[in-house]
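Morning!

This is the sequence you dropped in the shared folder:
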Amino acid sequence: MLQGSARVGAGEGTSRTIKQMGLADTSGSTSWSIALATFRADTEAGAANSALARVRMMPGMSEAYLDDRGRTLVVAYGRYEAPGSTAAKRDLARIQQLKVGGERPFSRAVLSPPSSGSRVGDAAGLELRNARRSGGDGEVLYTLQIGVYWRPDGQEPTAAEQAEFRAAAEKAAADLRREGIEAYYYHGPRKSMVTVGSFAAKEYDPSPQQINPMAPPKQSSELLQLREKFPYNLENGRAIKRTLAGATEGRIDPSFVVVIPP
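The structure's back. Tokens below.
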């Protein structure tokens, strides 16, 4: 994706900014779209407009538009009734493979749910195993976990609790997708996780830690940016500070890289 910025609260002037740009305010849309880049709505409207102009000059991208998602402005393409539609899959594949100057600027483009709508499930492609694909950078292997829904006491969840955890993780992933962020959920036997991003082996290499456990892994700039944007692994939607044995101060559980299940 083209680089935007983190999610923040938007001021009430966003709709006015969209109108001043001469673009449609699609905040009430019920259509899916392909998210190409995201920008903060309160401070980066100008940058979003500039990005849109650049995108429209690329081959086959003249119909790109700016989508007002409340807290973010998303440079988007297409309007689709469902993420599994022929048109949605065809356009996403074409855009991900689009080369400009020898590079693929939208290799991480994702389908984004409508700004208004109900629960988004498997058909949306948000289940984590959908991220394991082959691309120009090699097979995707890793993702960044930023949230977990579970019983912190480690006990077996009831059926009702498990359903609640699953619904919460799916909603969290869908909300992030609505803001143009590549987010996924994954349901385990006792807990449900939320992750962002998808990375090949060349983008995350933990081999230095085999020599020195304290050495940082090799990480791509995109992974580092995601870590900065999502520094914590939230527990049931909250940042939990823990104090380890022998430590004088607690710290919030950090986000961390996990292997995408096959």
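Headline: Residues 233 and 253 are 6 Å apart (CA to CA).

More detail when I'm at my desk.
O.
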